[in-house]
Amino acid sequence: MPEIRCTVNGVEQALNVPPMARLLDVLREELRLTGVKEGCGEGECGACSVLIDGELTNSCLVPVLQADGARITTIEGVADQERLHAVQQAFLECGGAQCGICTPGMVLAALSLLGRHPEPTIDQIREGLAGNLCRCTGYMRIFESVVETVRRS
Length: 153
Hints:
Strand order of the largest sheet: 2-1-5-3-4
CATH architecture of the largest domain: Roll
Mean pLDDT: 95
Largest sheet: 5 strands, mixed
CATH class of the largest domain: Alpha Beta
CATH topology of the largest domain: Ubiquitin-like (UB roll)
Shape: globular
Structural class: alpha+beta
Radius of gyration: 15 Å
C-alpha cells in the first residue's frame, strides 16, 4: 500500500490506507475527525464537505489517493483553539445549527463562499450554499447566519 501524505487541519499526516478508500472514511475512521458527516454517500447533500486546497469538496466522492499532497480542512480545523470562528458563532447565535448533521458542511460552504465573496448578496449566499441540504431549518436561519457574519466583519 502506498503511503498517502497530506496535511489535515494543519497537521501533517502519513496514511497507510487503501488508495481508493473514500476520504470521508479515512477522516472519520483513521483520523477520528467525526465532524465530517456521511449523509447520502453520493455527493448530493454536502454533509461530508471539506476544503481541499481551499476548494469545497464532497469527501464521500474523493478517493484518498487524490488527497495525496493536499491541504485538507475539516470542521475541526475551523475554530482557533478554544475560540469559534465567526461563522460558527453566527450559526449558534442565529439558530443556523439545529440537528447538526448538515452544520459542518454548511459552515465550510459559508467559509468557501466568504473567501470568494466577502460581502455576498442573498442570491450569492443561496448559490454558495446550494450544494448542502438541510431538513431542519428551512435555510433562512442559515442564510441569516452568513449575513450576520458579514455584518460583524
